[in-house]
Protein: Tubulin polymerization-promoting protein family member 3
Organism: Chiloscyllium punctatum
Amino acid sequence: MAEGGSVSTEALQESFKKFAAYGDTKATGNEMTGKNWAKLCKECKIIDGKAITSTDVDIVFSKVKAKTARVITFEEFKNALAELAPKRFKGRSKEEAIEAAYKLIAGKDPTNVGVTKVTKAGAVDRLTDTSKYTGSHKERFDQDGKGKGKVGREDMIEKTGYVAAYKGAGTYNEKAKEK
């Protein structure tokens, strides 16, 4: 098997170590778990959903690791890639396919996809943002977010004879004239 070609083994090993240590504070980066192997394959686009699926990746992981081991070494990692590469890059020679797979991985770092972002605004800013108020609380502020004072808090009784919040208040006389 050709050793890397244009992709240096150091760059590949560097990415291997980063993914191997990802999510585990005690990991040395010399051995990779199946979970991190799957993460590497997904993020580096080894899994394309057509030729290679996550199931293929899991099967290859089980195949290359030692019988009782739960992790793979860098050498086993290269063997796993050698097994997946021809399937992922059809129509290329085995060496070209492995080279293409190495290029996908070399220099890549694991990303934190789906990690919850911390809101930059403090709790007070979020809670006092009047644009997010709903229901009766929204009625207490005008369009600019300024409070309406007592008018916004209390039901003011209008002695007009109309039901509260009736939009046509004061139009009876006009309608009566029309008839």
In short: The chain has two domains: 9-105, 122-152. The first helix runs from residue 9 to 21. The beta strands are 32-33, 71-72.
